[in-house]
Amino acid sequence: MTSQHSSLADFSTLRRGQQITLRHSSGDQFSGVLEDHADDSSVVWVRSDDGAGRRLFHREDGYSIGI
Predict the structure, then answer these.
(1) 12/34 Cα distance (integer angstroms)
(2) Structural domain boundaries, residue 47
(3) pLDDT tens digits along 5-18
(4) What distance in Å separates the CA atoms of residue 39 and residue 26, rounded to the nearest whole number?
(5) Residue 43 maps to which CATH number?
(6) How far is 6 from 63, CA to CA, in rounded Å?
(7) Distance separating alpha carbons of residues 3 and 21, to the nearest angstrom
(8) d(C-alpha 43, C-alpha 11), whole Å
(9) CA dist list (Å): 56 to 1, 2, 49, 60
């Protein structure tokens, strides 16, 4: 199964509770469940799959989102 990746600017179409993977061109990757996003689609909160808590991502941080 292949995943679909899009710019963080497109994350407003995602739903809370959806499983996502964020990837950066540097090789950094973060997988988890979308917990929340700002009304203006500028940031998302993602709860880590590995139990490391949650993390805030800004759409200009350079990550793409895989669903």
Answers:
(1) 11
(2) 5-66
(3) 555 456 778 889 99
(4) 28
(5) 2.30.30.520
(6) 9
(7) 9
(8) 9
(9) 27, 25, 14, 12
